[in-house]
TrEMBL record:
This is CMS1 protein. Gene3D superfamilies: P-loop containing nucleotide triphosphate hydrolases. It comes from the Eukaryota. The gene is Cmss1. Pfam families: CMS1 (PF14617). GO terms for cellular component: 90S preribosome; nucleus. It comes from Anhinga anhinga (Anhinga). PANTHER family: PROTEIN CMSS1. InterPro entries: Cms1, P-loop_NTPase.
Length: 197
C-alpha cells in the first residue's frame, strides 16, 4: 500500500512519544540484548510532544538565548528531513527567534568545513538541519550537544509524496543513528528535552 492510499481513508494522526519509542524498539529488536534495549528507552519527562510552535517548547527562550555564550554548540537543534524543509522552518520561526542567530546544518550548497568554521568562530542559538549533516558534524567534533537544551524532530511534516521523515529509509537510518550516538544518552541524563513537532 502507498502512504497516499492510507491517508485517503483516514486523516494522519500527530506523532506521540510512544511512536518514537516503538520505532527504536522495532529497529533494534533482536539485534540488542535486554540491557542494551533498556538503555535506549526514553522517559516521558525527556520526551514531549509539542503541538504548538517553538514558544510552547521553550517558554524561557529569552533567558536561555541571552545566557548562551558557547561556541561549537546551539541551544535548540531542529532536525528535518531535507534542506528545503529546514529553510521553510527557519523562515516560519521569524517571530520566535527574534535577534538570535540561526545556523543552517544541511549539505545542500554548504560544505561541512564551512559549517565547522562558523561554529568555531561564532555563537549560534538555533541549528536547523538534516540528521546526516548533524551526525557528521558531531562525529567530526564540529558540533557539541552538551549545552543543547532542546532537540526537536520534525516528526509530523509530510513531503510531496506524503512521507514523514521516518517513512524515508535513509533519513530514518540517519536519525536513529544520531539518536543512538548521543541524543538518547543526553535525554536520559536529563540535560536535553526531545520534542516531536
Amino acid at each position: 500500500k502507498k502512504i497516499s492510499d492510507i491517508l485517503e481513508k483516514s486523516a494522519p494522526k500527530p506523532g506521540v512519544p510512544a511512536d518514537l519509542q516503538n520505532l527504536l524498539s522495532q529497529h533494534f529488536g533482536e539485534n540488542r540484548s535486554v540491557i542494551e534495549r533498556e538503555e535506549l528507552k526514553l522517559s516521558v519527562p525527556s520526551l514531549c510532544v509539542y503541538t504548538g510552535f517553538f514558544i510552547a517548547v521553550c517558554p524561557k527562550w529569552a533567558k536561555l538565548r541571552k545566557n548562551h555564550k558557547e561556541k561549537k554548540s546551539v541551544v535548540m537543534l531542529v532536525i528535518c528531513s531535507s534542506a528545503l524543509r529546514s529553510l521553510e522552518l527557519i523562515k516560519s520561526m521569524t517571530a520566535f527567534k527574534g535577534d538570535c542567530r540561526v545556523l543552517k546544518l544541511f549539505a545542500k550548497h554548504i560544505k561541512i568545513k564551512e559549517q565547522i568554521n562558523m561554529l568555531e568562530k561564532g555563537v549560534f542559538h538555533i541549528g536547523v538541519g538534516t540528521p546526516g549533516r548533524v551526525k557528521a558534524l558531531v562525529e567530526q567534533d564540529g558540533l557539541c550537544l552538551n549545552s543543547t537544551k532542546y532537540i526537536i524532530l520534525d516528526w509530523n511534516w509530510r513531503d510531496q509524496k506524503l512521507r514523514r521523515m521516518m517513512d524515508i529509509p535513509e533519513i530514518k537510518k540517519e536519525t536513529i543513528d544520531l539518536l543512538e550516538m548521543c541524543i538518547i544518552k543526553l535525554c536520559r541524563e536529563g540535560s536535553v528535552k526531545l520534542g516531536l513537532f
